[in-house]
Amino acid sequence: MRSPRTSRRGARVAGGYTLYELMISLIMIGILAGLCATIAASARQDERTAGAYAEDLRHLRTASERLTAAVRGARHVAATDAGILIDGTFWQADDGALLRGDAVAVRGVSRLCAEALGQRRFRIAVTPVPRRAGATPPELVTTTRQRAEGAR
Questions:
Q1: Residues facing 115 on adjacent strands
Q2: Whether the predicted pLDDT of 11 surpasses 70
Q3: Looking at the whole model, is its pTM more than 0.85?
């Protein structure tokens, strides 16, 4: 059993922590705070990345829906290497946007690939603008059919 400490003059001194114990506890608290800050920064970065990915998918869906609707309602469709010609209007991806003629239809699209599959069927693939250099962005591929001649 430990007896209470006394000072040189004989007065009782209340128990406490030594300077070394206080320093070690402060160092441990600092290490834990640094770990928490690193984890929080990583979570914020993951949230930004997920938000950017969702935005890319939204742009791709919009582009795909507009192209699909245009092909379905068209009388004449021709796929080329540079884009797709729908009823005399040329759709292409240029300067980070899907262009319908000279007007911007959807932003955030870096590439449009259209391929005729025969019998009024087309494969349309759109790719978003890459967020990082060297990153491979997702590609949204849609297969659609042009309506039969005379159907509207």
A1: 123
A2: no
A3: no
Which residue, among 128, 124, 123, 85, has the nearest Cα to 107 in the 3D structure? Answer: 128
Q: Give the list of residues 6+ apart from residue 44 with CB closer than 8 angstroms, or none.
A: none
- Structural tokens at position 92: 């292409």
Q: Where are the domains of the chain?
A: 51-145
Q: How confident is the model at residue 25 (pLDDT cuts 50, 70, 90)?
A: very high
Tokens of 96: 């980070």
Residues 55, 108 contacting (CB under 8 angstroms):
yes
Q: Band of the pLDDT at 143, cuts 50, 70, 90?
A: confident
State both tokens at 23: 């320093």
DSSP-based helix, strand, coil % in the chain, nearest 5: 35, 30, 35
Check: CB of residue 6 under 8 Å from CB of residue 14.
Answer: no
Q: Which of 99, 97, 101 is nearest to 129 (CA)?
A: 97
